[in-house]
Design goal:
71 residues; 4 helices; elongated
Length: 71
């Protein structure tokens, strides 16, 4: 816990929960539907024909290897 207190590391969710409980607090996570969603992108896609959506999906998928997670 000393590294967290010193600011050397950020605690994981379970560690944060234990720290908060030890201090007499709790953390709650609520999912809010639709929050953070750019609905304009959805509307733009729905204006496209199915063939246009497929072409766009293929183009976007080609860029995915650049975002591969390194382990």
């Amino acid at each position: 816990m000393g590294r967290v207190e010193a600011g050397l590391v950020s605690p994981r969710a379970n560690t944060l929960g234990r720290l908060l409980r030890a201090a007499g607090h709790e953390v709650w996570v609520d999912r809010r539907l639709g929050e953070g969603v750019d609905r304009s992108l959805i509307r733009d896609r729905l204006r496209m024909t199915p063939a246009e959506r497929i072409r766009l999906a293929v183009e976007e998928a080609r860029g995915l290897p650049a975002f591969r997670i390194r382990r």
